[in-house]
Amino acid sequence: MSFNVLGIGEVLWDLLPDGRQLGGAPTNFAYHAHALGAHAEIITRVGTDPRGAEILQRIKQLGLSVRGVQQDDTAPTGVVTVALSGCGIPEYTIHENVAWDRINAEQEALVLVRAAHVVCFGTLAQRSPISRQAIQRLLASASADAWRVCDINLRQNYFNREVIEHSLQLANVLKLNDGELAVLAQMFPLEGDVCRQLEALARRFSLRVVALTCGAKGSVLYREGSWSERSTTTVKVKDTVGAGDAFTAALCLGLLRRLDLDDINDAANRLAAHVCSCAGAMPELPEELRQLFNPTSELPA
Questions:
Q1: Which residue range(s) make up the domain with 270?
Q2: Is 171 contained in some domain?
Q3: CA atoms of 34 and 5, how far apart (whole Å)
Q4: What pLDDT digit, counting tens, does each position of 219-248 carry?
Q5: Stated pTM of the model
Q6: CATH number reported for the structural domain that contains residue 202 in this entry
């Protein structure tokens, strides 16, 4: 069975020290979901400028459809300036008043959402009222059986309690990293150790799955009383841009394939580690990673 997987939100150029790379969490997510065998698409918005035209061309080159990519006659295509620390950790300067701040819940977008088995979204693309209202309307139209994944993606000051709370109410899966968990623990508040905090989030927002990534320390998955804790695959880190989005894509394919939590966690860590070992968010995947969720093959040892 071919699964329809959809990312909603920002698309942009990451202006990295080594050059320009296509980016934006939903785009990274869709690329990796497609590479893992899903039919993946994006709902986003670009300007009618050279950067926007280049994004449309690049998305096609990646094997993804552009039918969910809206075009804006007045706002420019988004860019993000990315500086890397000595450990390859990115620091982002996200420019405002760009096309993805004006996503619309137009008919084509509604059609895509209603057909999706997974809809993945974050909080960054909801920084403007226009996109926020559109994204929330789109999510409300998703199938009751769909996985609605909030990859929370807290950036700079582009989030607040109201947006996070509403997003988690719309979601049935939460993916976050350890830094973001610390923000939510203070915001709501959450007590106890990491596992108690994840369980509290799941209970409070009726989440079916919560996934926590902890960088080099590995990851934790929680699903309705069951747990999986895994250490990360050791690699020489080039940069960590897009690794979390790759993890989310693997998580979603694992859920769609109804795999065991440990198998999902192992696969997601393998994919994220590969992305960390490469420059940019969307490196080409070796065949062994592309086959992680092939139902006729087993997970690599």
A1: 4-290
A2: yes
A3: 8
A4: 999 999 999 999 887 888 887 888 999 999
A5: 0.92
A6: 3.40.1190.20
